[in-house]
Amino acid sequence: MRLFFWFSLCFSAIACNNTSSGPTQKSSEFVDLPKDFLNFYNTFHTDSAYQIAHIEWPLKGEKAEKQPDGSAKKVLTIWEPETWQMLHMPDLNDPGLKRSYETMSDVLIIEKMQYPMVNYGLERQFFKEENNEWKLIYYSEMQEL
Questions:
Q1: Angle at the Cα of 26 (from 39 to 96), degrees rounded to 5?
Q2: What is the distance between the alpha carbons of residues 48 and 53, in angstroms, rounded to a whole number?
């Protein structure tokens, strides 16, 4: 219940964000993120048991669902641990991949990875719980933007 409260609070902060300076920080630099998040991020992408333990289940998000005409439609989805496929570290040397991070105070980081040339991308949201552990709380898989 607390996670829902904090997520709602952070979502409200995003939705009501105005142009004044505040706790929101946008960056394309991975090094600008909190050190504890960087440690979490590296372990999250290299240890499958750690990854499963640091996802808020059931994980909500979006995926692309193929339509009869061959197009794809974004649909809300819920992932479960039994069908989860481990997320691996993105190729940081890929010149076509543009990454950005939005830091909401010290508890919410929104990561976006996009291939602007082909209009595809994904979004992940990470939340820092009261016990100082980071968790993936939202995942929108790679799809047309």
A1: 80
A2: 9
**pLDDT tens digits, one per residue of 28-55:** 566 678 999 999 999 999 999 999 999 9
DSSP 44: H
In angstroms, rounded to a whole number, what is the distance separating the alpha carbons of residues 86 and 8? 27
Query: What domains can you pick out in the chain, each with its CATH number?
Result: 2-16+23-144 (3.10.450.410)
- pLDDT tens, residue by residue, 94-145: 999 999 999 987 899 999 999 998 989 999 999 999 999 999 999 999 988 7
Strand, coil or helix: 50:
helix
CA distance 98 to 101: 10
User: Cα(first)–Cα(last) distance of the chain, in Å?
Assistant: 32
Tell me the C-alpha distance between 71 and 91, whole Å.
27
- What number of other Cβ atoms are within 10 A of residue 97's Cβ? 14
